[in-house]
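Reopening this one. Same input as before:
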Amino acid sequence: MPAAVAYTRVEAGKHFLSDNIVGYVIGATAGIVVPQLHKTTGNSYSLAPIQGLNANGYSYSGLLLTKQL
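Same output, byte for byte:
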């Protein structure tokens, strides 16, 4: 399906062939890597988004990395 859409986008003049190749590679890589990162067997690390206010009233946001002991 992605290849068919890529072909029609090139034919319509909306994308270059190199755009489609890079997008296909990034999409395939994300499709393989993300499920591997979410496997929980033996994984004692956790990553979660956080945000809030500090004591001075300034907002912050970031990622919380925790390790289970």
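So the earlier flakiness isn't reproducible anymore. For the record, Strands lie at 45-53, 59-67.
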